[in-house]
Amino acid sequence: MKTPATIDDKGVEIMPTTAKVDLKSIDDIRLEMARVYREMRGNVIESQQGTRLVYVLSQIGKLIELHEIERRLTALEDRQ
Predict the structure, then answer these.
(1) Is the dihedral of CA 39, 20, 54, 58 positive or negative?
(2) Exposure string over 21-38, b if 16+ CB within 10 A, otherwise e
(3) Where does residue 16 rank: exposed (0-12), middle (13-18), buried (19+ CB within 10 A)?
(4) pLDDT in tens, 71-80
């Protein structure tokens, strides 16, 4: 398989995605973070790549939390 070229002309290996990941809840995020951790521990993915993935997952988790807080606050305000 030919390695694709990048902007700096260094080749990178593209890892195929295994399945669509559902990230609609904090529990989904937790499960995906655990999967990434296990893959780092098992040397399936490099720790640097895993760290980046977990960072993005944590940001998605924060947005889910903020959305839930906003939804609840709006519901409380509407009651008054």
Answers:
(1) negative
(2) eeeeeeebbeebbebbee
(3) exposed
(4) 999 999 999 9
Query: Is residue 38, in this structure, part of any structural domain at all?
Result: yes
Q: Is the distance from CB of 26 to CB of 18 less than 8 angstroms?
A: no
Instruction: For residue 43, give both structure tokens.
Output: 């040397």
> Does the residue 35 lie in any domain?
yes
Q: How many domains does the chain have?
A: 1
Task: Please count the CA atoms within 13 angstroms of the CA of 53 that sit on its side-chain side.
Answer: 20
Task: Note the pLDDT tens digit of each residue in 31-59.
Answer: 999 999 999 999 999 999 999 999 999 99
Domain membership flag for residue 20: no
Pairwise CA distance, residues 27 & 31, whole Å: 6
Q: By residue range, what is the domain housing residue 44?
A: 26-79
